[in-house]
Design goal:
Maf protein, 6 helices, binds inosinic acid, alpha/beta, 24% strand
Amino acid sequence: MTTPILIATGNPGKLAEYTHLLADLPVEWHSLTDLGIRADVEETGTDFEANALLKAHEYGRRANMLTLADDSGLVVDALGGEPGVHSARYGGPGLDDAGRWRLLLDNLRGVPDEKRTARFVCTIAAVAPNGEAIITEGTLEGRIAHEGRGEHGFGYDPVFYLPERGVTLAELPPAQKNAISHRANAAAALRPYLIDMLTL
Ligand code: IMP
């Protein structure tokens, strides 16, 4: 028997990543698009967990099926955790991805390497039709580089440096990024709970 699950994202890249990471489960995957649900829930929470729960509850209510939603962002220690939940709109609506990471580099000017520690965080909420909810978190540790490098990925990848590999995330081929990413780690943590929820 397969269980229908909604992956509540408007981002086709995330959808592909999650269905790939959880491909072996007895699940019939659905997207907001194929269910005709608009991706219009605003992320008004003050942390990743609140935003993930907000989306999983609301889209799950509309779809009436087990629903996964996530929220993610970049946490920079020298900036007190910013951009954090504001990662997608850091610097305001006029900036694109490159504008946002350039602003980040400007805000870190003069900060030495050892104080440029940062992590990507991904929180996934899984909410069942009976209201039962599970939250998991995954992180990827690194440092903010002094300049952008690499062509892969999106968002802050060109300035997210992995010291042990000597490359930025944007220099890693997608398959290698997807194997170590905060999303992969959050999905791996979710897997056993999700399997339990499938048998409810
Ligand atoms: P959301 O989870 O789609 O709301 O993503 C929030 C924002 O965090 C994105 O718009 C990016 O700016 C940033 N972000 C999240 N994950 C990544 C990643 O894997 N690489 C680069 N930036 C990311």
